[in-house]
DNA sequence: CTGAAAGCGCTTACAG
DNA sequence: CTGAAAGCGCTTACAG
């Protein structure tokens, strides 16, 4: 493996000192009163040699690393994928070096990944959807790294969340209204997916109950099916509960929709199902059963996140809830009311 | 910002030399014949201090960085999201440090990101779906970094691809067979999405034509609609071409499906459309028009990719095409034949 | 206008 | 069984 060119190689070729090369290449040459002629020569030779600075050496020497870390449960998911993508773009726009790693909802991997971010000398770590954000915040604080929670809240660092209660409330109101309109009378409403104890599920469940209460109704406990976030257990548990159409379903995440649809496909009357989903997917929106989706406002969340990052103040108590965007599904032509 | 603990801090507290601390913490203490008692003490104190090694310093000093880079067009996409996620998992399993960055199909960003990977001292760069992979490979080679292309091929580095021709051939055969069965006679077949000149579109188009030729048919040039990979131009151009049902559509990517569905929704008879899609999405599979999807074999592709990475040999000519997995869409109960 | 020099935090051959 | 020391490639105050 041919050794990469260093500032010493460039210095030799340009017949200047390594220090001068360094300041030309990192743009501080004017401040150091190096002549433009020298700067041009050094830049030309560096380009010819395909020189690329060694980040390890450069970051070691500099006072600040400008590294900003993010851990995220998954990439393979519209919501978290959009978060990761937008995070990178916004970090780069600020001259920061984003380092993202995906922790697959594994608590140990989350913690190890956070440690790794400390090792990368991250100045700030965005902890997205972590199962135990406070454990990570403690690790960060011990190392002098700012932590900010995203998507799921913690007590030891500020949190930027979706307004899960409000989104679920509005979604459930729609579900109540549309099922009554389509079927001519109240039908059983189910809440499917997620895990009780998880903050987001708790908040959405609260919104679900509140909307039912507004309508003078209450939820049947056996219609709350929360076996987690993957689709197989959702399909299994919902299948055992044997729902009968007509009915309405609040799907707590698009992954839950995958499970729900397997059960719905087996029903004698799939057209007797109406569904609302917390989270958004363009194709799920085209399902004939879908009436609305609560799209989490990724841009709004990240705007708030970077406002916290840009401002130094980060009170641990700060907690921002960003409203979701309610997307009505197109009403398929073939679907009759009632 | 409190300074992070260093090996010097631990050394002082444990009353040993910094060198001894270093070898205890990186596991080479047995080789250096340091006593277990000393090692235990150092480990305990390091844990108490929340010590985390400084990667910049450690990687600078070591001979190898163990960093492995990947550039990827998007995270917010089932296919590329799955690639990024699996890449991280497999790299970690090998003790490597994956660094991924998302380049949003921007040629300049791709090149800048590749430069950045060289600066991170990456030993290898996986170039995924790049618009100009050879420009990046040249940069890598100049810096002594191995490059491997994924998803789109280049001439200067080995390439791991989907077997686009074969996948499109099988998908089109299905489309021919199912439209003839459902409508009782051959109907117009359209190819929608992607860009002519792009390797993958070219190969899939070749498969499309080959399957038509097998059936003794040929494609109408005006039925090839390839205005790129985003959904808005697909909807616009397909809308202008005003397709009439009954018809069959080969959608070149799930993003194309989004555009196609906007047009289909406006047709007098959406049920007169059959669609096959290159690429997979669980919800797109549930569209009533969808008959089959070609799921790219991400696991198979990455297995091959890491076989190249693990083995030192990387002949630039090497080109592997991994077969796609054909997923038949569930046949909706409400859909009548003919 | 530019160079010599110290030092970032680590690793590892070498000496004992 | 352990320490002293050199050096990875850079940056930047300091001296001239």
CATH fold type of the largest domain in chain A: Rossmann fold
CATH superfamily of the largest domain in chain A: Response regulator
Oligomer: homodimer
H-E string of chain A: HHHHEHEHEHEEHEEHEEHEHEEHEE
**Strand tally of chain A:** 14
Approximate strand percentage of chain A: 15-25%
Could you characterize the architecture of this molecule?
- The structure is a homodimer of 338-residue chains.
- Chain A has helices spanning 7-14, 18-25, 36-48, 55-61, 78-93, 107-119, 133-142, 164-183, 199-214, 231-241, 254-265, 298-310, and strands spanning 67-72, 97-102, 124-128, 146-150, 159-162, 189-192, 194-195, 224-225, 227-228, 247-252, 273-278, 290-295, 319-322, 325-328.
- Chain A is elongated.
- Helices cover 43% and strands 18% of the residues of chain A.
- The first copy, chain A, is an alpha/beta fold and 338 residues long.
- Chain A contains 12 helices and 14 strands.
- The first copy, chain A, folds into 3 domains: 7-53, 434 Repressor (Amino-terminal Domain) (Orthogonal Bundle); 67-161 and 298-322, Rossmann fold (3-Layer(aba) Sandwich), CATH 3.40.50; 164-296, Rossmann fold (3-Layer(aba) Sandwich).
- In chain A, the strands form 3 sheets. Chain A has a 6-stranded parallel beta sheet with strand order 2-1-3-4-5-13, with helices on both faces.
- In chain A, α7 links the parallel β3 and β4.
- Chain A binds a DNA duplex (16 and 16 nucleotides) through residues 6-8, 16-20, 22-23, 26, 28, 32-35, 38, 53-54, 56-63.
């Amino acid at each position: 493996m041919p050794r990469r060119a260093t500032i010493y190689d460039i210095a030799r070729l340009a017949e200047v000192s390594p220090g001068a090369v360094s300041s030309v290449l990192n743009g501080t040459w004017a401040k150091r009163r190096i002549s433009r002629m020298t700067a041009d020569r050094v830049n030309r030779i560096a380009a010819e040699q395909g020189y690329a600075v060694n980040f390890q050496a450069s970051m070691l020497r500099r006072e600040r690393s400008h590294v900003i870390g993010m851990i995220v449960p998954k990439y393979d998911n519209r919501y978290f994928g959009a978060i990761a993508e937008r995070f990178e773009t916004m970090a780069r726009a600020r001259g920061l070096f984003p380092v993202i790693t995906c922790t697959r909802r594994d608590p140990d991997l989350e913690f190890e990944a956070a440690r790794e971010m400390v090792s990368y000398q991250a100045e700030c770590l965005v902890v997205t959807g972590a199962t135990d954000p406070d454990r990570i915040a403690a690790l960060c604080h011990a190392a002098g790294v700012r932590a900010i929670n995203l998507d799921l809240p913690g007590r030891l660092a500020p949190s930027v969340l979706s307004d899960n209660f409000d989104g679920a409330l509005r979604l459930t109101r729609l579900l109540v209204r549309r099922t009554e309109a389509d079927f001519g009378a109240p039908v059983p409403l189910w809440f499917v997916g997620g895990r009780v104890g998880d903050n987001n599920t708790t908040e959405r469940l609260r919104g679900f109950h509140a909307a039912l209460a507004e309508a003078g109704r209450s939820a049947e406990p056996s219609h709350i099916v929360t076996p987690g976030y993957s689709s197989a257990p959702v399909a299994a548990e919902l299948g055992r509960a044997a729902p009968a159409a007509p009915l309405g379903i609040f799907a707590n995440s698009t992954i839950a929709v995958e499970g729900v649809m397997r059960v719905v496909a087996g029903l004698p009357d799939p057209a007797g199902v109406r569904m609302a989903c917390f989270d958004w997917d363009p194709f799920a929106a085209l399902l004939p059963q879908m009436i609305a989706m609560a799209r989490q406002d990724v841009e709004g969340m990240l705007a708030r996140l970077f406002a916290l990052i840009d401002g130094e103040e980060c009170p641990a108590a700060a907690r921002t809830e960003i409203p979701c965007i309610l997307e009505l599904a197109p009403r398929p032509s073939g679907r009759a009311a009632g």
